[in-house]
Amino acid sequence: MYCVIPSMDAIGGEVSHGAASISAGEERSYWRWSKNDFFPEPSFRNWGAYRAALSRTGPRLRDRLLHRSTDAAELLALPRRSEHGLRRCLTWWDLAWLGFGSVVGTGIFVITGQEARFAAGPAIPLSYAAAGLSALLSSFVYAEFASDVPSAGGSFSYLRIELGDFLAYLAAANILLEALVGAAGLARSWTSYFATLLGREPDSLRIHAPALAAGFDLLDPIAVVVLIACSSVAIFGTRGTSTLNWITSLLSAAVIGFIIVAGFTHADPDNLTPFFPNGAKGVFEAAAVVYWAYTGFDMVATMAEETRNPARDVPLGLVGSMSAITVVYCVMALVLVMMQRFDQLDPNAAYAVAFAATGMKWAKYLVALGALKGMTTGLLVGALGQGRYTTQIARAHMIPPYFALVHPKTGTPVYATLLVTISSACIAFFSSLDVLATVSSISTLFIFALVALALLVRRYYNREVTPRANLFKLVFFLAVIVASSIGVSAYWNSNPKGWIGYAITLPLWFLSTLGLAVFVPQQRAPKVWGVPLVPWLPSLSIATNLFLMGSLGYEAFVRFGICTALMLVYYVLVGLHATYDAAREDDDDTEAVKVEACSSEYVM
User: C or N terminus of the chain, fewer CB within 10 Å?
Assistant: First the structure.
């Protein structure tokens, strides 16, 4: 007789609820606020303990660099820290519409006009196709991980298991940055379209503050109100939010159908000339930014912990919705640049203004209404996913575990959702859309590249059985894949006239991927659903994400570097010591859950 550790989908969330729940005698009020709730770790017990922890920063950093989590820890031990479990109430139908609601509206109505006018021109559909291909590859990777590890942490949990705590922290910090910036940018665009619906200029409802720097001088109180309203709905329950999303998303589908049909009836092929006003470089620069339009799909992976059968439903919801959305985006982008010349597009409310320019002034109100609905569901689903990301990050103590608490009645992470909402509202109040889009895109591309790398590690490395020789081969081939991908991007963006750089970097990428396929045996097969053509598709995902990342401008990398530096300062001063202490607790919790599971009906 032996014990089988049950997967979350096999037990329908019962272990999550049961393990997370605390006994009636220890029940505490959810609405509490104390130092111990925010910093329960021994390193923060008092100033003396904190000074002692700082003096051991070096050894602790080495420990965290080498530490990797496990499936059991992410699925069983960490949810105990939420005190109450997230409720399993979603199906593939819900996930598909959550994917649609979070993605459609987040970008196509927001930044298509901006990038068509200033970067890609009429070739903007090719930008969406390039970004869509990269996003689709990433969705394959996320689908396999979410099937195997149905955790609320999404990419954070995947990286923590395969690449270790330190890289997972960098990903977690960028996930939170992406969540904050993405929600803020979408809320500001909501204001622009609302102004258009009222027949006013897109910036007319904002408050001009000339004392502030350009890009931060248009204050947006309406965006703050919209963020708070959408998050309030998400806080009251996942099931209700999902139902509201798919019902209202039917309106978005109807508006999209109208835009495509009515747009093509007013299309002028002459508007497609010149097709490449800024060359291929402009197309890929735009692709790197419009990638933001696809970022909502990773929210679906965070809902795996609340999905009834994640092994089946998550791949259906992820891959199905992303395939359809890529086609829709390309067609809608083509419609826009055929209705109006690219150099006349409004960068804030492109579709509404384009219809007005064709003589269909009444249509701009319908488009604005549909765009508002799409952006509202994007904020609604974003509030769900961002709250789950934040919950798992807090469960790992990378931010205070107070934000991991799940409300016993609603089954939702109220504190985590409020943290993201309030922070996003502060950003949305000040920052313009162009500043926000580049920061969000670079964080997203960085995370997606890391997740694809983590999948290759998961397939080819098992810490208990992989021989050291195969580990060295794996590290070598992965290093060459990453280095050659960076080389292709760097050579492209340095504007060379020759071809010798590609003659070196592209064969290196191909040979390193081929070497991984031939000389390193796979150590693990996916449990239910797997990425096809491994290692080729994950390797291509790494290359495309890094290529698009390199296509962003210099300022985006400066902002990314500054944000990363601040993240590292926080990690050294707080996150490192909190996670080090929590890791000691993790080991005990994981063993306790294993014993609990073995003593239950799952003994075989």
Answer: N
How far apart are the C-alpha atoms of 424 and 220, rounded to whole Å?
A: 12
What pLDDT is attached to residue 72?
86
Which band of pLDDT confidence, cut at 50, 70 and 90, is reported for residue 12? very low
**Cis? peptide before 535, omega within 30° of 0:** yes
What region does 279 belong to: left with phi over 0, alpha with psi -120 to 50, or beta? Answer: left
What is the pLDDT confidence band of residue 338, given thresholds at 50, 70 and 90?
very high
d(CA 82, CA 366): 43
Residue pair 40/402 in contact by the 8 Å Cβ criterion: no
CA distance 526 to 322: 21
Query: Element (H or E) spanning 219, and its range?
Result: strand 218-219
Rounded to the nearest integer, the mean pLDDT of the chain is: 83
CB 290 within 8 A of CB 126: no
Is residue 136 packed enough to be buried (19+ CB in 10 Å), middle (13-18) or exposed (0-12)?
A: buried
**Other C-beta atoms within 10 Å of 101: how many?**
31
| Residue 290, amino acid | V
Give the pTM: 0.81
Beta bridge partners of 218: 208
Q: In 3D, which of 427, 590, 421, 454 has the Cα closest to residue 170?
A: 454
Joined together, the tokens standing for residue 198 give: 């009222």
Residue found under tokens 């990398």: 557
Q: How many helices (H) and strands (E) does the chain have?
A: 24, 2
| pLDDT exceeds cutoff 50 at 10 | no
Please tell me the distance from the alpha carbon of residue 128 to that of residue 148, in angstroms, as a whole number.
30
- Cα(54)–Cα(64) distance, integer angstroms: 14
Lowest model confidence (mean pLDDT) among 336-350, 391-405, 450-464: 336-350
Closest by CA to 181, choosing from 227, 231, 225, is 227
Cα(433)–Cα(553) distance, integer angstroms: 15
What's the CA gap between 436 and 111, in Å, rounded? 11
CB 109 within 8 A of CB 351: yes
Tokens of 181: 């910036």
CB 296 within 8 A of CB 110: no
